[in-house]
């Protein structure tokens, strides 16, 4: 007689980030939108130049977003806002501090916390988490089968839940993680 065992499995793969992205935003308000646009564009240009000279950030590692123009208040009587951002892509993690230091010396800008990610081998890391999740499910099913006196486990189906990605702040070495979860159905024989 064939029986089934349904179990869940979880796997986590931890890894170091290889890329950080920092967003710097400049915003100016003026009675005339064109004046605010010109000041914002000039400040963005100065920030990019400072990063190139002081931090040797390559031009291809600085992405400039389109300029946004909006009215202040219900009408334009309070002025118009011009806002623009740059995204700074840092490939060496030990460069985050010095780049922040350079940016912190510039007044009137908004600096985001870095977004840390892994660009190399991302699929490999997800595969490691999936493999752990399936092995965890198999281990649970084997334990249940043995306790119930059942034999010959065969996978009938596996359903993958969505992979969760995040930042583990509890580790000594700050790291990223991928968590995979599966639900597996095994068939057994007595």
What characteristics describe this protein?
Translation Initiation Factor IF3, four-stranded antiparallel β-sheet, 2 domains, Alpha-Beta Plaits, single chain, 10 strands, six-stranded antiparallel β-sheet, elongated, 190 residues, alpha+beta
Main beta-sheet strand count, sense and barrel state: 6 strands, antiparallel
| CATH topology-level name of the largest domain | Alpha-Beta Plaits
- Count of individual helical segments: 3
Mean pLDDT: 88
Model regions low in confidence, pLDDT < 50 over at least 5 residues: none
At CATH's second level, what is the architecture of the largest domain?
2-Layer Sandwich
Count of distinct strands:
10
Plain-language structure description:
The structure is a single chain. The chain has 190 residues and is an alpha+beta fold. It folds into two domains: 2-16 and 120-189, Translation Initiation Factor IF3 (2-Layer Sandwich); 19-117, Protein of unknown function (DUF541), domain 2 (Alpha-Beta Plaits), CATH 3.30.70.2970. 31% of the residues lie in helices and 42% in strands. It has three helices and ten strands. It has helices at 33-55, 96-104, 122-148, and strands at residues 2-15, 19-30, 62-64, 68-71, 80-90, 109-111, 115-117, 151-160, 164-168, 175-189. Strands 2, 3, 4, 5, 6 and 7 form a six-stranded antiparallel β-sheet that branches. Strands 1, 8, 9 and 10 form a four-stranded antiparallel β-sheet that branches. A hairpin with a 6-residue loop joins strand 9 and strand 10 (175-189). The longest helix has 27 residues, at 122-148. It is elongated, with a radius of gyration of 26 Å.
């Amino acid at each position: 007689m064939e029986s089934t065992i349904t179990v869940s499995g979880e796997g986590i793969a931890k890894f170091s980030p290889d890329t950080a992205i920092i967003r710097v935003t400049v915003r100016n308000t003026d009675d005339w939108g064109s004046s605010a646009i010109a000041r914002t564009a000039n400040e963005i240009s100065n920030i990019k130049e400072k990063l190139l000279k002081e931090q040797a950030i390559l031009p291809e590692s600085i992405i400039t977003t389109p300029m946004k123009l909006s009215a202040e208040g219900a009408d334009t009587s309070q002025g118009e806002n011009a806002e623009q951002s740059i995204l700074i892509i840092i490939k060496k993690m030990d460069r985050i501090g010095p780049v922040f230091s350079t940016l912190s010396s510039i007044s009137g800008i908004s600096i985001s916390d870095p977004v840390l990610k892994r660009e190399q081998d991302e699929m490999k890391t997800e595969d490691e988490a999936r493999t752990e999740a399936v092995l965890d499910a198999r281990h649970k099913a084997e334990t249940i089968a043995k306790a119930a006196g059942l034999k010959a486990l065969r996978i009938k189906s596996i359903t993958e839940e969505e992979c969760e990605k995040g930042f583990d702040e509890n580790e000594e070495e700050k790291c990223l993680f991928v968590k995979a979860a599966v639900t597996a159905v095994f068939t057994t024989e007595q």
